[in-house]
Design a protein that fits this description.
alpha/beta; Rossmann fold; 6-stranded mixed sheet; 3-stranded antiparallel sheet; 11 helices; 48% helix
Length: 300
């Protein structure tokens, strides 16, 4: 299910739809949901809570307190309030306060999440990384000179530790939609004051992207598409081969070299299904697919 696939309920419906989508969370799983107390993780907890019955999910929340900020206890209290409102069990893990880097703190947090999930017999930890997080991750990888694996950004699901996967079901949802979802549900959330510190690289990239979004509508969606393509290419998936097949066919016609990604992707999915159909490429030009093969290009 994609962002926007539910028309009722506005952004709230969209968040509920995507929380179980893109293969991140699977039916019948026992899921440990990381809840920092921020709006993103609160929205994730609520959205998965709404999907618990239809997807037969067994949910529990976990809050990891690093103790490095004066407001850390406030975040913990918010997580407790959210767990009570959603009637979900919550485990709080207090880590020894350290002055480590952001990367070191993240590793400690993931280790704590993995250990808690293993202890609960949960095969997956869900985190609330969203569309803007993905854009920031891809750009930071580019600035480091990363290859295809880095440019692929964050995957919807990847191994975290032995027997535990890390799932990110909200990678196509905007931060604004998640905040609106919290407001619509009347759920509390905390704001991390360190997000305003542009001395941190990710925050500096976040501020720059905020200035660019009005000039480039759909920026995050475009970055997400590029990351998905890079991921498919890096993992040599059959979908990457199908994209190359279609691009090669279109490249025979000079005016079809720059066909929009979305048009190509619709045709790719038809090839995957072995389907037949006529797919719009440009005004007056269609790609004909017959029983999972490219039949030709039709004009007019």
């Amino acid at each position: 299910m994609k962002f926007g696939s539910l028309t009722s309920g506005g952004s709230c419906g969209a968040v509920r739809a995507d929380a179980g989508g893109i293969g991140a969370i699977r039916r019948g799983e026992r899921v440990t949901v990381a809840c920092s107390g921020g709006p993103d993780s609160v929205a994730l907890a609520a959205a998965l809570g709404a999907l618990a019955r239809p997807m037969d999910l067994d949910l529990r929340l976990i809050h990891v307190n690093h103790g490095v900020r004066a407001s850390a206890r406030q975040d913990e209290c918010v997580a407790m309030s959210v767990a009570a409102a959603l009637e979900l069990p919550l485990r709080v893990v207090n880590l020894p306060a350290t002055a480590g880097s952001e990367a070191a703190l993240r590793e400690e947090r993931y280790a704590a999440l993995a250990a808690a999930a293993q202890g609960a017999g949960s095969p997956v930890v869900a985190t609330a990384h969203h569309a803007e997080d993905q854009s920031e991750t891809v750009l930071l990888a580019l600035f480091r000179g990363a290859g295809p694996d880095g440019v692929a950004g964050m995957l919807p699901r990847r191994p975290l530790s032995a027997g535990v996967d890390l799932a990110r079901p909200l990678l196509r949802i905007s931060a604004a939609a998640l905040r609106r979802y919290c407001h619509a549900r009347g759920l509390p959330y905390a704001v991390d004051p360190t997000n305003a510190d542009v001395g941190l690289r990710r925050n500096a990239v976040r501020e720059a992207l905020g200035a660019l979004r009005p000039l480039f509508p759909g920026l995050d969606e475009a970055v997400a598409r590029a990351a998905a393509i890079a991921g498919d290419e890096a993992q040599a998936r059959s979908r990457a081969d199908l994209r190359r097949l279609i691009r090669a066919r279109l490249a025979r016609e000079d005016e079809l070299r720059d066909v929009d990604f979305l048009h190509v992707e619709e045709a790719v999915r038809a090839l995957e299904r072995g389907a037949s159909g006529s797919f719009h490429m440009k005004a007056g030009v269609r790609l004909e697919i017959l029983h999972g093969g490219i039949a030709g290009i039709i004009r007019g």
